[in-house]
C-alpha cells in the first residue's frame, strides 16, 4: 500500500461550513471512496485553511480515476469547488521519513 499525503487550501471564510459538510459525508460518497481504493482516509484542517489529506491506496492515480468516474463524486465536487482557493488541485507531498520503515531496516 502506498501512503499518500496531499494539501489543499480552503477559503478562510468557508472553514466552519467545510467542517460541517465533512461531519456527515453522504453515505454513497463514503461507499464510493471505499470501493475506489481509498483506505484509512483522513482530512486535517488548520485554522488558516490549510487542508492536509492522508490515505493508503494501491494506486493513487487509479483511485482518483475511479472516483472521477462516479456520479456521486461529480455531485460532491460540484458542491465543494467553491470552498477551495485555486480549485481542488491536490499537491501531493513526498514522504521523507517513516519510522516503521527505518526501524524495519535496522532489523
What do you see in this structure?
The protein is an alpha+beta fold. It has one domain (2-106): Alpha-Beta Plaits (2-Layer Sandwich), CATH 3.30.70.100. It contains five helices and four strands; from the N terminus they run βααββααβα. It has a four-stranded antiparallel sheet with strand order 2-3-1-4, with no helix packed on it. The two termini are 21 Å apart. It comes from Dactylosporangium aurantiacum. This is L-rhamnose mutarotase. GO terms for molecular function: racemase and epimerase activity, acting on carbohydrates and derivatives.
SSE blueprint and pairings:
Layout: E1 2-9, H1 15-23, H2 27-35, E2 39-45, E3 50-57, H3 60-68, H4 71-80, E4 91-92, H5 99-106
Antiparallel strand pairs: 1-3, 1-4, 2-3
Key attributes of the depicted protein:
107 residues, alpha+beta, Alpha-Beta Plaits, 5 helices, Dimeric_a/b-barrel, L-rhamnose mutarotase, Rham/fucose_mutarotase
Amino acid at each position: 500500500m502506498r501512503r499518500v499525503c496531499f494539501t489543499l487550501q480552503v477559503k478562510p471564510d468557508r472553514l466552519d461550513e467545510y467542517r460541517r459538510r465533512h461531519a456527515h459525508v453522504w453515505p454513497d460518497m463514503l461507499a464510493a471512496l471505499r470501493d475506489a481504493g481509498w483506505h484509512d482516509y483522513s482530512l486535517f484542517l488548520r485554522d488558516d485553511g490549510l487542508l492536509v489529506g492522508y490515505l493508503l491506496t494501491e494506486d493513487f492515480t487509479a483511485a482518483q480515476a475511479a472516483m472521477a468516474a462516479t456520479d456521486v463524486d461529480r455531485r460532491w465536487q460540484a458542491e465543494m469547488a467553491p470552498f477551495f482557493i485555486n480549485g481542488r488541485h491536490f499537491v501531493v507531498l513526498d514522504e521523507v521519513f517513516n519510522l516503521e520503515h527505518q526501524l524495519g531496516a535496522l532489523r
